[in-house]
Amino acid sequence: MPTKPGAKRNYWLMKSEAEVFSISDLESAPNQTTCWDGVRNYQARNFLRDQLKKGDLVFFYHSNAEPSAIAGIAEVVREGYPDSSAFDESDVHYDPKSKPDAPTWFMVDIRHVETFKQPIGLEELRKFKSLDKMALLQKGSRLSVQPVTAAEWQVVVNHALRQK
Q1: Is the entire prediction scored with pTM above 0.85?
Q2: How far apart are CA 40 and CA 128, in angstroms?
């Protein structure tokens, strides 16, 4: 896993529908890197704009899948910048209220780090008492970008390592 000497790292979970953009798509992208655009929730936007920092690690989560699961890990390689999809009238994420000189929506760039041999599904995650407070496992948790504590991160990573 990459490290930033002397820097505090934060951990996140980002959701994507596998049929829209999967971890395999990220792995196949040029330089295994892509922008994370199209987020249209203000709280998730604030995380992207203000809190995700270069070097932070991200669980890549396949939502609306059978089963929904953490599929692997990515790293933030570019911090928040205006989401250009909001300015493109032909894009499904177009927002006529967002302007290039006063953007409403932001995105980050992420790079593939690892695809888990075995994705870790919701039911599997619920088995860990230490994950009871994890945002993903809370009733009504729908945010597409959400924080993960260092302790939660370690539990999930340790479980993934045991599956190798």
Answers
A1: yes
A2: 31
